[in-house]
UniProtKB/TrEMBL annotation:
Stored InterPro entries: NAD(P)-bd_dom_sf, Sc_DH/Rdtase_CS, SDR_fam
Gene3D superfamilies the UniProt entry points to: NAD(P)-binding Rossmann-like Domain
Domain of life of the source: Eukaryota
Name recorded for this polypeptide: NAD(P)-binding protein
Any Pfam family matching the protein: adh_short_C2
Organism, as annotated: Lactarius akahatsu
Length: 222
């Protein structure tokens, strides 16, 4: 088992304990979202153990920082497989389950500021995140008749372990430029992103669909 696999397993366990400490039920089902059978099995397991699927947040994603001229076909295809195809598969099979249940639902994807404005050194990532915006609009147009809304959130730089890692390495200048271009002169917090996702998952968001909503502190205006 790789170090990254062990770390993810620890994070999954901590997340489960946090949810259960609030008196809620939780379930962790490791899967590769780029593989359709694994996405199907994950949804089946959720329905089997928890009773239904009412909200799908397709959040899995990868990013590699490399110049456009150095981007390989393998890197490009890997980004598209996980970020774009993985989101499509989560949307598709969540929608099928929600339609079968007959009471609508909320489908939410994770695009990015890089999915609204291409970012240097992120060619494959930007392309995959632009794809999610189009996918979200297309799916929303078809699924609304079933009471299913489909939206995405598009964060700018957020204070996470990943962004802090890159601040300590080669991309300090690029990240600093994004911070100073923000209208609020700071990066976002995970809690702020979670607030938007919670709204999109709520009953109150029923008239919002097909949107990829920017949440970036004003570093990019739609």
């Amino acid at each position: 088992m790789s170090q990254s696999t062990i770390s993810q397993a620890v994070l999954d366990w901590m997340s489960l304990r946090e949810i259960e400490s609030k008196g809620r039920r939780s379930l962790a089902v490791p899967a590769d979202v780029s593989l359709e059978p694994e996405v199907e099995k994950t949804i089946q397991k959720v329905v089997q153990d928890l009773g239904s699927l009412d909200v799908m947040v397709a959040n899995a994603g990868i990013v590699t920082f490399e110049s456009f001229l150095d981007t390989t076909v393998e890197s490009f295809d890997h980004h598209m497989a996980v970020n774009a195809r993985g989101t499509m598969l989560c949307y598709k099979h969540a929608a099928k389950q929600m339609i079968a249940q007959g009471r609508g639902g909320r489908i939410i994807g994770a695009t990015s500021q890089a999915g609204k404005q291409g970012i240097s050194l992120c060619t494959a990532y930007s392309a995959s995140k632009f794809a999610i915006c189009g996918l979200t609009q297309a799916a929303a147009g078809e699924l609304g008749i079933y009471g299913i809304t489909v939206n995405a959130y598009a964060p700018g730089v957020v204070k996470t372990a990943l962004s802090q890692f890159f601040c300590l390495n080669a991309f300090t200048h690029a990240l600093s430029a994004l911070v100073t271009s923000s209208a609020v002169n700071r990066i976002g917090t995970p809690e702020e992103i979670a607030g938007l996702v919670s709204y999109l998952a709520s009953d109150g968001s029923g008239f919002v669909t097909g949107q990829s909503i920017s949440i970036n502190g004003g570093s990019y205006f739609d």
